[in-house]
Design a protein that fits this description.
There is one protein chain. The chain is α/β, with parallel strands linked by helices. It is built from 7 helices and 7 strands. It has a 7-stranded mixed sheet with strand order 3-2-1-4-5-7-6, with helices on both faces. Strand 4, helix 6 and strand 5 form a beta-alpha-beta unit.
Length: 218
């Protein structure tokens, strides 16, 4: 795990996190490296963030007083637990999650309920390029961590949907460092600055500093 000191201290939440981390496994063929493979075939594998990334999500969301966040993809809800705990501890809010595989949607909802956080998350089942088109208003934080594949990557397509909703000063955390995502987020014309962090093999932390779209996140 991440050592004895953890920023998220709720025992009900950390017990579920510990259970999910202990159960986490990856198949030998690593299907995340190809969109031609069917994600439904890997419904029993919880492809998720690392605990140190979760700690960062919790701290960032607490620090900016986040009340509305979005994530792609939810998987079994590990990342959702960190974000939902943060918005709860900030006084209330919602995490909007996107997950394609119905079995994982059900698992995420069970895990959130077990942690006492079901009221702070809305998991949308289906293709994130459809389910995240309307976020219903401004958001404070986004996690981009979905299925890998050929360009354009899903990460690139989803960030272009989400970015107009992100407020100035809001953060994006990207787990997989997809080349076309990095090219887009590092282009000053798109309104972000970012840095690569040595977490989980490479994590891009991005902050929105301008709103070139003229969207709701101005």
């Amino acid at each position: 795990m991440t050592g004895s000191h953890r920023p998220l201290r709720d025992p009900a939440v950390t017990a579920v996190i510990d259970k999910l981390v202990a159960a986490q496994q990856y198949p030998a063929d690593d299907p995340r490296n190809g969109l031609e493979r069917d994600p439904h075939e890997y419904r029993d594998y919880g492809f998720s963030i690392a605990p140190e990334q979760g700690d960062l999500i919790y701290l960032l969301c607490r620090g900016i007083r986040a009340t509305r966040t979005v994530e792609f993809a939810t998987s079994v809800g590990l990342s959702t637990l960190y974000a939902a705990a943060a918005v709860r501890d900030n006084g209330g809010g919602t995490v909007i999650g996107a997950e394609l595989v119905p079995a994982k949607v059900a698992a995420a909802r069970r895990n959130l309920a077990e942690a006492g956080l079901a009221d702070y998350a809305e998991i949308r089942e289906g293709d994130a390029r459809v389910t995240l088109r309307d976020l219903g208003g401004e958001i404070d934080f986004a996690l981009i961590d979905g299925w890998l594949g050929a360009e354009p990557s899903l990460a690139r397509e989803v960030i272009e949907l989400v970015a107009p909703y992100l407020r100035i000063g809001g953060y994006v955390l990207n787990d997989n460092a997809e080349p076309d995502f990095l090219a887009w987020i590092r282009d000053p014309a798109n309104g972000f600055v970012s840095v690569s962090l040595p977490l989980h093999g490479g994590t891009e932390l991005c902050v929105k500093v301008a709103a070139p779209y003229g969207g709701v996140g101005r």
